[in-house]
Amino acid sequence: MSRPLGAARRMPRRPVLLGTAGLAMAAIRSAHAAQYPEQTVRYINLFPPGAATDLLSRAYCATMSTLAGEQFVVENKSGAGGTVGQAAIAQSPPDGYTLGLGSIASLGIAPSIYPSLPYDPARDFTYVAGIWQVPNLLFCNAAVPVRSLQDMVALVKANPGKYLYGSGGSGTSPHLTMEWLKQVAGLNLAHVPYRGGAPMLLDLIAGRVHFAFDNLASLLAPVRQGQIRPLAVTSKERSPLLPDVPTTNSVYPELEITSWGGLVGPARIPAQIVERLADLTHETLKAAELNRIFREQGATPWWLPPEEFAAFQQQQQRFFAGLVKRVGASAN
């Protein structure tokens, strides 16, 4: 039996209405993205106040606030080598108003150090932009009788099991760098992990631990005040801030590592907001005041757009998986 012509004509109306509504919603989302941000943006830093990442994050967020016209507010959420804060970012709404640090520790190293993570680095994040790179510094308590990396190796080998090293947490780049040094130099040096670099530094100055690696950014003041003694930097070349301190690769050619940090958010942030954040970050990294602060902290502005940052994270995860396997590092 044939259908009435009127019914045949009315059938497409629902798909057409749905399609029109979808286009309208897309236009609304696009308009909101163009106006982003329209309120305060929460930036989660993975380590405690006073740590290198905290100093650099606050300088970055201050410049972003000026350019964006809304505040980017730093919130410190530390623990487990940065993975506590990284998980908080992953579990946030994907609206662009909760972002944070993506670090070498929590996105490059942690997948190979921790048996289970509350996030998947490839699946659970939006990679927005690279922000900085900074070398690690090997240093010791000022009372320890060494003045070079070679002195340290000789002292520890002559006193196996006597000396301790601290780190800002298991799975951080300073922790893994020391484990790497222990392997290539054949050292017996016990690990004492802390909840961030700042409390570790206080204990090292007090003599409770003897050696450590940490980001150069947080160590310049205690070096200048004579509270700690620098022994070597992990960058390819000497730091202009500490030109008399040799590189680790001048003694052990393979021992070279640079920490990094970038802007990430939870997965599925709208593409227009990601583009806006990447553009703001690019402009922020050109700011003269930010560059001055970064240089003073031993950091280098490091611009990477979203796709390149995501690819870099995957490359770093593969590299550290191999390194962790070679040195036998674990989260303890």
From TrEMBL:
Keywords: Signal. Coiled coil: none annotated. Gene3D superfamilies: Bordetella uptake gene, domain 1 (3.40.190.150), Periplasmic binding protein-like II (3.40.190.10). The keyword Iron-sulfur does not apply. Residues 1-33 form the signal peptide. Pfam families: TctC (PF03401). It comes from the Bacteria. Belongs to the UPF0065 (bug) family. This is Tripartite tricarboxylate transporter substrate binding protein.
